[in-house]
Known about the structure:
This protein is of the alpha/beta class. About 35% of the residues lie in helices and about 20% in strands.
Amino acid sequence: MRKKLLVTGGAGYVGGVVAAHLIEAGHRVTVLDDLSTGLRDGVPRGADFVEGRVQDAAKILDGSYDAVLHFAASSQVGESVADPEKYWRNNVAGTLELLAAMRESGVRTLVFSSTAATYGEPAAIPITESAATAPTNPYGASKLAVDHMIGGECAAHGLSAVSLRYFNVAGAYGKHGERHDPESHLIPLVLQVAQGRRAAISVYGDDYPTPDGTCVRDYIHVADLAEAHLLALDKAPRGEHLICNLGNGSGFSVREVIETARRVTGHPVPATTVARRAGDPAVLVASADRAREVLGWRPTRTDLAEIIRDAWTFATTQGD
């Protein structure tokens, strides 16, 4: 059934890919984004666009909307440590106003882009939804606060909501790829080295208790991630808050990413080993069993070479 949807943060990387999938599925989409980190050309063709903050949702939402998909957030871990108040203001206070606007307009379905940073340093791998939440930075703490807020909204006011928690999103979908400024994610940084835009990639520690000594992380293709959001939109439990982890189910080490990028691009990728970063766990891999069972989610782009190949195509065709 065709739905009318508000996508906050829909000019960003993940929000833009999800908005594109929604339009392709026949839904009517309005994107709300202040373009502080998103880009105007990241809004997919066919979407209505409103430039503004998430706090402006009350000016848009009315009874004609069926649901909200919420991506608008500040999301840099390092920045959150240096400027935590920005994260409480944007992520927490902004979502509080969004929930109020949804309540007042009668929009009763929400899909929230959460993060596995809510778990902090897990005691067991793979990470399940029952794992203790102990975020190690204000970014993760702000997302956990929003998850708690959503749970209260569901219990008190009958909101139907799904929070999707994921780690490392990568790859590209058509014209939508990673264009962060500054860039902090491993795959686009490695591809910048392959392009000659960066001299070398830094490997933060090679003495972890992993097969090759480097950190292992779970990478999920952005298109698989988008498909999970569409499933969540239809599976949001009435008056309840469902939390699902999203992941590949297996991890790839930093060295595996670098070696795969060398093969995919055909370019040398010099790597320099430097000191470990404080707080970097050796392995972070999510269990997506609940998403598979409850949402019916089946990721199909789980090969690291495919993920990097799509990201490389995007990186080398920007502006074409």
